[in-house]
Amino acid sequence: MNKVYVSGIGQVPIRENWERSLKELAGDAALLAIEDAGLGYPQGLFVGNMMSPTANKQMHLGALLADWLGFHHKSAVTIESACGSASAAFRMGVMAIASGEMDSVLVIGAEKMTDSPSPEITSALATAADAELELDFGVSFVALNALIMRRYMHEHGWEKKDFAPFSINAHANGAHNPNARFQQAITEQTFMNAGMVCDPINLMDASPIGDGSAALFLSSKPVSNGHPTIEVVASASATDTISIQNRKDPTWLTAAEQGAKQCYAQAGIKPRDISVFEYHDAFTIMAALSLEAAGFCERGQGPRLAAEGKIAFDSEIPVATLGGLKARGHPVGATGAYQLVEVVQQLRGEAGFTQVRDPRYGMAQNIGGSGSNITTHILKRV
Question: Which CATH number fits domain 124-208+233-381: 3.40.50.1980, 3.40.50.720, 3.40.50.300, 3.40.47.10?
């Protein structure tokens, strides 16, 4: 197979972007990635998005953005995999180049959520769950994660306050990210006093939605554009049952475990070799479960890893180094692209205040649904 390199990256700040449409947000990130790569227009376009049919009344984003960007007569498709849409699109781009079908592709993750009323967004987010087995009974997506969190706390003896370090770490890092939705640190008191959304999940457990777009330019050859060479050395995707009730163990992310194992094998490394891990902390419980499933700690010990300060950007396994979903924001279909862009920033040495020291391998893991479709990538500074 051909090697795959990330030659360019681009992103826009996650905000309530009232003044720009979905295609404008996507186009801005795309043009930044194209300019960063310096290779001209790519041969193909892969767009990751979840909610444009409901939130924006717009489908067919591949063709729409190809037209908007001037990619006339190029291959362009849209990939939907719930909150994991952008990383799924990235994986399609990686496969296109690795197979030899294309020499260059552009991957865009884009989502515009704040133009729609909150009840509509809540309903749309819930479509990532099983419509017959979960949604028909009135369970929201937050409620599903609350059920998982409650069971996890019961099985492993953790209390509510034990999840505070995940949010504290994310906000401490996000305070230094100009693209983050929330750029201020929080305390344990802030965490504990936050309003309850669905017990035991409160506002400080949950990531905020937003409008945003991030893009990555992939190529089959390294380029001399003034940046360190970043290679995609592993890519994997795995699934689990979409409904929580059908899982053998709802407190374990089997798809994350499988994807991480496949990626470690492809890259020829171990968890200890990962310099930075951008996990999918849509909720603090997912942060804990991701650390465990990816092999960074024993089962049930994710909160302990956070409490001991081992997830800080200058510690053993840096996570959410630019704020994660919790502080950077979670424009759902675009999130996977932001994660990958941030891994590239770290590997290039462009992460600013929260720069990890001498990183070589970075991993990004993007969750679709409540763990039903998870895509994992490992990137390497060559």
Answer: 3.40.47.10
